[in-house]
Amino acid sequence: MMYKITLILSVLVAINFILLIFSTNKVKKISKPKKVKVNKPIVLKKVPKTITTQQAPSRLSPTGS
Description:
Helices cover 34% and strands 0% of the residues. By secondary structure, the protein is an all-alpha fold. The radius of gyration is 38 Å and the shape is elongated. It starts with a helix and ends in a 42-residue tail after the last helix.
């Protein structure tokens, strides 16, 4: 009687593991594409913008109203 229960339980556990293996979402291992070495263009040094004319602090710009 004890062997019969042990055998039934072990069979059920084995079926459970087999079903678990087939039911899981398998992720395929995707190899990353190799990055192609690209020659970067030469970037010219940017010169900061300079203000050529200064506005008088007491004079406001027209708003149109």
